[in-house]
Structures are given as C-alpha cells and as structure tokens.
Amino acid sequence: KAGVTQTPRYLIKTRGQQVTLSCSPISGHRSVSWYQQTPGQGLQFLFEYFSETQRNKGNFPGRFSGRQFSNSRSEMNVSTLELGDSALYLCASSSRTSATTDTQYFGPGTRLTVL
Amino acid sequence: DAKTTQPNSMESNEEEPVHLPCNHSTISGTDYIHWYRQLPSQGPEYVIHGLTSNVNNRMASLAIAEDRKSSTLILHRATLRDAAVYYCILRDARGNAGNMLTFGGGTRLMVKP
Question: What is the dihedral sign for C-alpha B32, A97, B37, A77?
Fold first, then answer.
C-alpha cells in the first residue's frame, strides 16, 4: 500500500498570500488529520476530517481551514499568511475503525516558509 | 486532557537497551498509552500502545506501572536508526477526541556508535 502523500513538499510564500496544501491518505482510510509543527510550539493539531465532515478542530485562527473530498483526499488552506505560519504541516490518515487502537499514519509533511 | 511528562533528551550507546520513561499521573481509567516517534526529516510513526498490561511488538516493548501513573518504552537494542524524538501520548478510549493526538515535547534520543 502506498503511504500518505503530501504535495507540495516545499513551498515559499510571502506575507499576505494564501496557500493550499494537499494530502492523499492511504487507500481505504477515511480519516485525515492535519498538524502544524514549529520549533517553538511543537506538534499541534489543526483539524480532523472524516467522510467529508470536520470532526475536531484545534485552537487555530479562522485563517486556517480545510476540506475533504469524496475520495478522502484533503486540502488545507491558510489565508493571509503571517511570518509565524512558517512551519512543517503534517497530514495523518487513519481507518478510524476504533479510536483507541487506530494507528495514525503520517505523511512526510509540507515545509512552508513565509517571507 | 491528561498530560504526559518526558525527559527532554536521553543518550544511549548502539546495541544497548534503552528505557524511555513517561509520567502520566492524571491518567484516567479510559486512557490508552500510545507511543510515536519522529525520525529526522520525517513525519511521526506509530511505535506501540497499551492499556494496563505490558505489550511487545517487533519495534519495542511497553511496560506499564501497576498504578498506570507511568510507563516505559523499551528498545531492546538501540541502533543508529532509532535516533528520533519519542512521544508518549494518552488517548481516551471513549473516542471523544476522535483521532486527535496531543503531542508533548517528547524525548530526543541520541544513539552513539
């Protein structure tokens, strides 16, 4: 089985722009979660989608949004970029058969740099 | 949410066992203990999880204290490839948080040849 794929792997944007990141989960997985990783804050949960519905949302401003398509692929969007949005954005997929034992499979991440 | 406490860093020699501790004194009866690790330049990967009993898999062993207030991830023979940040995470069996993982700072394991 192919793993979780994220595109693009690297991205450079300037302040005020917007960006869209893409995540393709493992085939058959219906849950996709997004995380932001920075040196200062570590790994922080952004949101989770399951069957095209947002199930959980972390403590991030409304500039951060996401969606999931019927094929379980997911995108996240950050509008009006700020310097502090520079981070590694990780996507994780899960089959969500059981919340307690579900293994989260992470992609390699998208490294976003905001200048 | 119940929190976990881990040492910031640990060092080990190659081919020796490594014991990575995790304290979770406020753990609830429905919390599972999960471990993930993040190798350099990669996303986190699942290592092992358990509830009350000790667990073994091909990657590691998980030893859980009788009162469940602490646990230890055991790598039986550390290799250079095991150098990573190891995260101890609690997941509520009731599934209220869905698939959200709450990461702490983790333990950075350095393996010396």
Answer: negative
Question: What are residue B11's DSSP bridge partners?
Answer: B110
Name chain B contacts of A31, Cβ cutoff 8 Å.
98-99
Helices (H), B1-113: none
Q: Tens digit of pLDDT for each residue in A69-109?
A: 999 999 999 999 999 999 999 999 998 655 556 789 999 99
C-alpha dist (Å) from residue B42 to A26, A63, A110? 17, 26, 11
Place of tokens 């949101």: A47
Q: Chain A contacts of B95, Cβ < 8 Å?
A: 98-100
The verdict on a CB contact (< 8 Å) between B104 and A96 is: no
- Residues of A with CB below 8 A from B99's CB? 31, 33, 48, 50, 55-56, 92, 94, 96, 99, 102, 104
Q: Are A75 and A67 in contact (CB under 8 A)?
A: yes
Per-residue pLDDT of B56-75, as tens digits, reads 999 999 999 999 999 999 99
